[in-house]
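Suppose you are handed a protein chain with no further information: no name, no annotation, nothing but its sequence. What can you learn? This example shows the usual starting point.
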Amino acid sequence: MPMEREAQGAALQGSQRVTTRVETHGEPKIGIEEFMSICERFGFSVDTLERIRAVVSEEDWGEGPFLANYYSGLPETKVQAFERAAREIFGVPYAMGLSSGTGALHAALVGAGVGPDTEVICAALGFFATASAVMLTGATPVFCDVDDSLHLDPTKLEALITPKTVAIAPTHVMGAVCDMGPIIEVAQRRGLKVIEDCAQACGATYRGAYVGTLGDYGCFSISAYKIVGGGEGGLLLAKSHELWERAAQLAEAGGLWRPDRFAPPRYAGELFPGTNYRMSELEAAVDVVQLRKMPDAVARFRRAKRAILDRLQTYREIQPQRSNDPDGDVGYTLRFFPRDVELSARIAADLRAAGVDAAARGPNAAPDWHSYAYMYPLQTRSAWPPPACPVCDDLFERMVTVSVNQWSTDDHCRRIADAMNAVFDKHCTRDDNARAWR
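A reasonable first move is to predict its three-dimensional structure. Written in structure tokens, the prediction is:
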């Protein structure tokens, strides 16, 4: 277990102390200058930096901090605190901090038994990292088309399963959630693992349960680009101790996680070569705070999105994105599909002119690694190009995205909705029988 790390390797602990302990007069290996470098990265003014330096210079730094998750001498490192916060918030028994969401996906796939001459069913829409991680294991990604929720279509899974299929990797896209019930039903019936890619939907729920807790593994990107994160980090949730161990074997250099790390295998298949996806202490120091802020941030996003949606009119030429769980979506984006690409471009342009943060790909769009059709690094597989996913192709090109600000007041939400209605009225026809926004 992770907390047993502090009891490992007395000899190694001694060697680490040699690099940090000052036996004679000198300075700690890591001290004031390193701390000030972090303060500079936070963007403090010169005057503030000078005051900080003056204060910390009065401290006795002793040996200085040992900024690693192993052999720190602390009751709990920041990585361990981050993992504990994840277990508490998500209500799971096993969590692992990693260096990136891609690292979490790679570790989960290997943990699930994915490898050469196997296949993993991936969503046609979702960032390239999922399919890329599949290929890193030596396996082949098989793309499943989406439905009008923009998520993997469960009704198309069965036709894609072959004797080589090991797992399904649904992606929760841009703050919304997959229809996990039928996906898990198919997986259990066919003996497949489920690896949730939650990079874009940390804090989303499906039928009251957090995404990432429904499958065998949940993988999160904890980064500056996501709801939670300050730099580059990742999080893996595991359903069982065995699954946690297998993922840790890949992520922790082939065995550093073990109670007796250098011992022979305790059971068949325990040990295999691994890499290092360990989360850093400095990243964890930020992310443990970020993760604890997540529930409140998600609640603010949901409130703002609901306030906008409740005021929007319905239009014949506009199809709102269908939600698999309207109350469970994070709500940091609002998406809809105008009748054609040209109309999408006109609506998005007019929305921006009206002060609404909107975007559409338009008729001359550049490649985007969020769609399977543009994932050109996958061309190293002989199966390229993959079979067409026509629903994904159509909806991805027509999609208009409106960003939602969690700090928007009710008045601001009202003005956004009114501006959207005004633009829609210019280009479209109101229709009370058209699909509702919620």
